[in-house]
Amino acid sequence: MSIEMDASQAETDLNEKIEFLRRTIGSMLIGQDDVIDQVLVVLLCRGHVLLEGVPGLGKTLLVKALAACFHGQFRRIQFTPDLMPADMTGHSIYDMKEARFHVRRGPVFTNLLLADEINRSPAKTQAALLEVMQEHQVTIEGEAYPLAPPFMVLATQNPIEQEGTYPLPEAELDRFLMKVFIDYPAFDDETRLVRQVTEGALSMSSIGADADGTLAPEDILALQNEAERVRVDEQVLAYAVSIVQATRKAASILKGAGPRASIGLVSAAKAWALMNGRDFVLPDDVKQVVLPVMRHRILLAPESEIDGFTPDRVLQQLLQSIDAPRV
Amino acid sequence: MARRWFWPLWISWFVPATVLFVLLSLFFYDSPWIVMSIIWWLKPVLERLPLLFVSRFLFNEGALSGVTWRQIRSTLLYGGLVSLTWLRLDPKRSFIQPVIVLEKQKGRARRVRSRVLSYNSASAATWLTVVMAHVEWLLFAAGPVLLMLLLGTFVELEDFWLLGVEHEWLAHGSNVFTLICMSVVAPFYVACGFSLYINRRIELEAWDLELLFRQIASQRTQQSDKPKRSSTAALLLVFNLTLVTSFALYPGTSAWADSSVMPATPEQSKEQVMTMLESPPFTNEKEVTTWHWKDAEELDAESGDWLKDWFDESGDFSWDGTSLFQIAEVLVWVAVALLLIFLARVLVKYVESPVGAAVTESDKPDPPRVLMGLSIDAESIPADIEKAVTEALDQGDLRLALSLTYRYALHRLTHQYGVEVEHWQTELECAATVRGHSEVSLDGVFDRLTHVWLRSAYAHQQPSRAKVEELLGAMQKVLK
C-alpha cells in the first residue's frame, strides 16, 4: 500500500540508524518484522510495550537484541507471586561501619527492563512500576532517583495460562504505549530460524558480539527527539482524536479509551512516519498504529464478548465508521 | 425432588385441577375446548400449591404442618393477576414463580429481583419450559397413538377424532386425558424451575443456604437407616400383576397358556413365525407368464394421492367448523414455514456480517460524493478541467490546481471505471484500491499524483507548476 516518499538529505542519517536497528534485530529475531517495527515505534516514543505471546517466541531475545543495538544496559525481572516492590526499585540499607543508610538501587535502574510474566505478581508489585514508567524515576526513602535515558519497559505475559495470575490493573495497562501480539513465525521463517540455530550461526551468546555500527544511547535520544519533531497536520490530529472518542460512544465497547490513548496514538503515528522516512504524518500512519495502541485500553461490552468479538475486530469496525480526514 | 415427592406434588396439582375441570365441564358442556383452554390458562395458579409443597419439603418441613388456610389462600391468590396476564406467556414461568409466590415480591421489587435472578439462569429456565411443553405434548399424542396401535387397522378412525369434532363425549374424554398428561408433567416442571431458582439463590447467597442444606442432609442420612417403604416397587408389582391377569383373561391368549402348544426354544419359535409369514394371508403367490401394465388402482394406492384426496374433500366444502379448521391449519403451517425461512435467512446474514447487521447487494452505497473532504460528484468538477487548472495555476494557487486534478482523477475512477472507494478510506488506501482494480491501467500515474497530493495536503509542500501540468496531462491520457 505504501508509496515511496522522498527522503531529504538531512534525514538520511536518521533513516540509516533506524534501518540498522531494524536489520540487526531482524537478523536475530526471525519472522517477527511487524513486532520489531512496533517495538521500535515504542522506543522512539519513549514509551513502554506489553508483549503478549506464548513462551518460546523470542520475547527475551528481542529485548536482548535491542539492548545490544545501542550499547544499552539490559536487566530482567522474573515476576513471581512473592516479588516485592523493593526487589525491583531498590531500598536503603543501614551500614553498621559507617553508621548511615546506603541506597541500594534495584534492577529498574537500566535502559531496557524486561518484566517477564508481569501478571504473575500481585497488583501491589505491579503498581510499583507505575512511577518508574510514567515519571522515569524511583523514590526511595522519600528521595527521587531519576533513571538514565533511554528507558523502556518491555513486559511480557502469557495469553494461555490464567491460573495464578493477576490481571494488570487498567491504570497499569494505560501506561503501556502498545500491546503487541507475538505470533508463531511463518513456515519459511521458522525453517530459516531452525537452520541458523542448528548450524550455530545464531545463539543467545552471540548477541552483543556484533558491535559493528552499534549505536550509542545518545543516538537513540536523538531519534526520539526527531520523532517528536515530525509534523502533524491539524486534520490528522483531529482524525486521531476522533478515533479515540468514537470508542467512548460505541455500543460494543463498555469503557472507551482515555486521553492518554490520543496522545499515544499521535506519538506512535509520528514515530511510524519517521521510520518510513517522512517528516510529516499521514492518516495511514494513525491507522497503522491504532490496534497496538488501543487494544488494551478499551473494555468490550459483555454482549460483544459473548458474540466472540475481540478488541481488534471491534476497533477495525470502528475505523470503518470514521471518515478519513478532511483536507 | 419431583421423583422423591411425586405423589404429594401430583395430588396438590391434580385435585384442585380436577375440581375445576369438573365444574367447568358442567358449565361448558357444549364447548369442551373452552374447558381445557381455561385450565391451560390457569396453570400458573395450579402450580402454586406444588411449589409451596416442594419448597417446604426441601427445607425439611411437613407439607401442611403449621400452614393455615389463610396462607394457602394467599399462596394461590397473591400476584395472581400478574401471573395470569402479562406474565402468563413468560417462558421462564417456573423460575420466576417462587419470586411471586414464596418471596411475595410485586411491582418494581419483583422486576428487579427477577432480573437479578435471571442473569445467567434465564436461558436454562426458558429451555425447561420448551422441553416440558414438548414432553406434555408428546404424552398427549402418545395416548391416542398407543390406542390406535392396539386397535390396529380393523377400526377406521375419523380425522381429528380425538378433538371430538363429531362427538362431545369424545372431546370430554380427550380433555380428561389431557388433564392427566398435564398433571404428570406439572410436578417435574415446578420442581425443576424451583431447583433452578434455589441454585441461583445459592450462587447469590452461598453459604447460609448451603450450611442449612448440609444440616438437613445430615439429619436425613440418620433417618434413612430405618427401613423405608418403596412405593415404586409396589407400583411395579401391581402393574405386573395386572398385566399377567389381563393376558390370562383375554380369550385370544388362552392357547399361549397351553404349554404343549408353545414352542420350547427360541429357534422353534422363530421357525414357527417364519412358517406363518410364508403362508396366506401374509404371502399370496400368483404365477403370471405375460407382460402387463400395473393396475391403475394399484398405482393410486401406492402413490397415496393425498393432494387429490384433499381437493376431493374441498369439492364438497362446507362452512362448518371442520373445513374452517382444516384451512386454518394449512394457513398456520404455511405461516410457520415462511417464518422459519425468514428467520433462517436473517440468521445467516447476521452470522456472515461482522457487525451483526444484514448487508445485501441492494444496500451497497452509490459512489461516494465526498472523499477525504473533497467533493468528487459531477457537479463539483468543472466541465473543462484543463482550463480550470490553468486558471488556478495562473492565480498562483497550486494547491487548488492540484486539488482539482486529484478530484478529477477520483471522480473519473469512481464514476466511470467503477472503482469502489469507501468514505473511511485514506488517500493511500484509495491508491491501493485503484491499483487492485484490474480494469484500469494507470501506469503508476495515480500513485504519483497521490504522492504529490499527500505532500501538499499534510506536509504543506507545494509542487511546481510544471509538475501539476504534467500530472494532469498524464491523468487525462490514461483516463481518456
UniProtKB/TrEMBL annotation, chain A:
SUPFAM superfamilies: P-loop containing nucleoside triphosphate hydrolases
Domain ChlI/MoxR AAA lid stretches: 245-317
Entry-linked InterPro entries: ATPase_AAA-3, CbbQ/NirQ/NorQ/GpvN, ChlI/MoxR_AAA_lid, P-loop_NTPase
Keywords: ATP-binding, Nucleotide-binding
Every ATPase AAA-3 domain range: 48-178
Any one Gene Ontology molecular-function term assigned to this protein's record: ATP binding
Assigned protein family: Belongs to the MoxR family.
Protein name (database record): MoxR-like ATPase
Organism: Marinobacterium stanieri
From TrEMBL, chain B:
Transmembrane segments: 7-29, 137-155, 175-198, 233-252, 324-344
Domain of life: Bacteria
Keyword annotations from UniProtKB, A to Z: Membrane, Transmembrane, Transmembrane helix
Residue ranges of every copy of the Protein-glutamine gamma-glutamyltransferase-like C-terminal domain listed in the record: 406-474
The keyword Plastid is annotated on this UniProt entry: no
Protein name listed in UniProt: Protein-glutamine gamma-glutamyltransferase-like C-terminal domain-containing protein
